[in-house]
Amino acid sequence: MIQLALIGVGTGNPDHVTLAGVRALREADLILLPRKGKAKSDLVDLRRLLCRNLLDEAAQSRVVEFDLPHRERRDDYLGAVDDWHAAIAEVWREQMTRHLPRGGRVAMMIWGDPSLYDSSLRITGRLKGLGQDGEASPAVSVVPGITSLQVLTAEHRIPLNVLAEPVQITTGRRLRERGWPDDAASVAVMLDSGGAFQALAPEGLHIWWGAYLGMDKQCLIEGPLAEVGPAIVERRAELRERHGWIMDVYLLARTPLLSRPVE
């Protein structure tokens, strides 16, 4: 029987890994590290660093790296993602059965937290044949981690929501397609391929933007969207060209986050 631990490890700062995460890594028989190509080598480098720093001499964990399949770029976005997840599940299954043919404890380090715009938990549901009866999915446990939104608000020293008001978390794709969500005083945007906020009328909006949060190349910009929006688009393009990849997230609000909205 395979026991799989999904461990949230934050966004790039090794200090963000919780004690529970350290314990789960040390108790694992196998730690799987996904490689996402040369452009995103920083991500696997950080996981390697965590293993070197957190696995003590008593740990018996075997660390194995593997290549993740690439997602097809096609108009049928959800279909492409579904096929991609199926391919990833097959790679996970192959690695687990090859290195732990008699079962055991597997750990995977998840960027941020497995609960927020991450599909690791969905992929584990496809891992049939690794459970106790030879057909079910493996036993899964989750160690929560610090999300990019938490780091964003911490670095900008702001709350996530306007006082007593809701906040909506969405994607860049949805922001472009649907505009500002109804009844939201603030909107957090993730998985933006670049500048989805340009689809909004900027008047009255404030933005807090961050890229490579928690990493040594972290970059922050904030201000009225009408003023700093173009600078964010330009800076984002520069950073992506320099590093070959980028992860960014931002928060938009119609009302100052540190005050109550005017009735």
TrEMBL record:
Source organism of the structure: Halomonas caseinilytica
SUPFAM superfamilies in UniProt: Tetrapyrrole methylase
Source domain of life: Bacteria
Keyword set includes S-adenosyl-L-methionine: yes
GO biological process: cobalamin biosynthetic process; methylation
GO molecular function, one term: precorrin-6A synthase (deacetylating) activity
Protein name: Precorrin-6A synthase (Deacetylating)
Alphabetic keyword roster: Cobalamin biosynthesis, Methyltransferase, S-adenosyl-L-methionine, Transferase
Domain Tetrapyrrole methylase span(s) in chain numbering: 4-228
Entries under NCBIfam families matching the protein: CobF (TIGR02434)
Pathway: Cofactor biosynthesis; adenosylcobalamin biosynthesis
A Pfam family annotated for this UniProt entry: TP_methylase
